[in-house]
Structure formats: structure tokens, C-alpha cells
Amino acid sequence: MGLMKNKKANMYAAVMVAIVLFMIGMIIVNFLKPEVTTARASLNCAAPTEITDGTKIMCLVVDTTVIYWMVLVFSIAGGLITEKVLI
User: Fold this and answer.
1) How many domains, the chain?
2) What range does the domain containing 64 cover?
3) pLDDT-based confidence at 54, cuts 50/70/90?
């Protein structure tokens, strides 16, 4: 009987940690957005006629930075919760 209470407590703790990590990750997104804008301006991504193929790839990578970060945060938070629920 004691193991069930411990398992529930671990699950709730994992959910709390996952929520905190999610919140921290979303706060970091606010710091990434200005850097993405600066990188796009320095690469001149707004003028597609003047950029080379390598610069187009860099513009694509810079544009997807925030999305990659959000997927990473969701994956870590979801993994923490799933680990404690399934085990």
C-alpha cells in the first residue's frame, strides 16, 4: 500500500517539475525572439533576390530556432510526465 502513495507522489512531483521546466522554457523563448530578428536582419533574409543558397539555408535555420526550442521544451516536459506515469 505504501508503494502506491509513493508512486502517486512521484507522479505529482514529476508533473510539477515538468510545468516549471515548461514555464522556464517559454520564458527563454522571449529572449530568443529578438536574437532571431537580429540574425535575420544581419543575414538580409527579407530581400530574397540578393541572397545566396547558403544564406537561404541559414535564414531557414534561424527562422526555425524558436519552433525547435518549443518542441524541445514540450518533449522534455512530456517525457518527465510520461516516465512517472508509466513506471
Assistant:
1) 1
2) 2-86
3) confident
Q: Over the stretch 9-40, which tens digit does the pLDDT of each residue have?
A: 777 888 888 888 889 988 998 998 999 999 88
Single out the residue of 59, 71, 72, 67 nearest to residue 33, CA to CA. Answer: 67
Q: Are 5 and 39 in contact (CB under 8 A)?
A: no
**pLDDT band at 86; cut points 50, 70, 90:** confident
Q: Are 18 and 77 contacting, i.e. CB atoms less than 8 angstroms apart?
A: yes
Q: What is the pLDDT of residue 38?
A: 92
pTM of the entire structure? 0.72
DSSP the chain: -HHHHHHHHHHHHHHHHHHHHHHHHHHHHHHHHHHHHHHHHHHTTT-TTS--HHHHHHHHHHHTHHHHHHHHHHHHHHHHHHHHHH-
